[in-house]
Amino acid sequence: MIILGIDPGSRNVGYGILQIQKRTILAAGCDTINVNSKLEIPQRLVEIYSEINKVLKEYKPEVAAIETIFYGKNIKSAFTLGHARGVIMLALAQQEIEIAEYTPREVKKSVVGNGNASKDQVEYMVQKILNLNSKPKSQDAADALAIALCHFNRNKFNF
Question: Topology of 2-158 in CATH?
């Protein structure tokens, strides 16, 4: 089974891949889709949609875990993030890929053991849990692997 973890964003979309066999993680990989921030939102969404489809075509995941919207102080940012999540979820639904959603707190608790963990703590634990030789390329990519790990931890007895 292949799990795709996605950390959505309107400028950077992190994705992480876990290959699972008999409740064991065999391989992990991650990267970041860097969206041209000079583009208007509609063009950014097209770019996100196109790049996510390339990831889906390359890795053929059976399930995708995506982080829910985190509402901070800026409502405009929350709406923009919602648009990005929407096009990502559309691409997943069109490929009939199962979608699981997790809050940032759930992901942090699953990977670090503390729902209030920092990004650095999440990145460190992802590296240790997956025995990575180096840090993931970006914190967005590390977060995406953490989201995939959260899904694995929640469902490992079903694999």
Answer: Nucleotidyltransferase; domain 5 (3.30.420)
